[in-house]
Amino acid sequence: MTLGAGQRLHARTEGSCRWGTIWVPAAGLARHGSALTGAVFAVPSAARWWRPRPAMGRHLRHLHSAAVGAVESRSNALIGAEAAHGLEQQLIDALVECLSNGSAIEAAPATRERQNVALRFEALLQTELERYLRMAEICAALGVSARTLRECCEEQLGMGPTEDVRRRRMQLVHRTLRNGEPDPASVSAVARRYGFRGLGRFAAEYRALFGELPFATLRRGSGHERARLSSHRRRSRV
Q1: Could you tell me how far CA 131 lies from the centroid of its own chain?
Q2: Confidence (pTM)
Q3: Helices 186-193 & 214-237, crossing angle to 10 degrees?
Q4: Phi-psi region of 42 (alpha: psi -120 to 50; beta: other; left: phi over 0)
Q5: Which residues contact 51 (CB under 8 A, 6 or more apart)?
């Protein structure tokens, strides 16, 4: 999968998987690809999926694993500049080979449209982090029907829009409690701030999602904050 600067998309699998990433400046990749292939090497401006030849795909994964392993095994030492440059060049060569000799998988127009709706849905929620938006408001802002929004979210996000909104608000509660608000009664206040009214159901859903009750997150967050402040005071007195 190739992504240009600032591009976002969703990718789902039906089972377990492993991901690897390689970041390369587009201009540098184009120059390197042209030099290696002897032809104009165009870097796609839109997100695109690729199916490399099996042998080249395995070679790229092997080099990527070697690079990650080299960094992890020598985390306290600097990798030699010459060795790092050589491994980098091999990675880029393998990447160019996969892209130039592999086949591109074009998404259907309908799929691209559903991707676009899901991305605009997420962008809208991101701009309204602390305001509870009703589904009618969301659909009106996106210019789609409730059925279209539900189908797009289920395909791209793996859940309906209502569940996605609720999970996002739950994550905001978790982040706030983890930061350690000092008021013992702040759990209910924070829950209400993000639109949760039934505190019993909220606590059960919170535990199912994060593996602990909200009060436990608050205690841990408050403890970390007290330790940080204590450490700061000690440094200030030295």
Answers
A1: 23
A2: 0.62
A3: 110
A4: beta
A5: 102, 103, 104, 105
93-120 pLDDT per residue, tens: 999 999 988 888 877 888 889 989 999 9
Q: What are phi and psi of 194, to 5 degrees?
A: -100, 20
How are beta strands 103-105 and 49-51 bridged, if at all? Answer: antiparallel
Within the chain, all domains assigned CATH 1.10.10.60 are found at 110-226
- Round to whole Å and give the CA distance between 41 and 1: 17
If you search the block for the tokens 């377990």, which residue do you land on? 16
d(CA 133, CA 138): 7
DSSP annotation of 92 reads: H
| Structure tokens that stand for 10 in this block | 């969703």
The token duo for 36 is: 């290696």
Q: What is the CATH number of domain 110-226?
A: 1.10.10.60
Output the six-digit token pair for 156: 């791209």
pLDDT of residue 181: 57
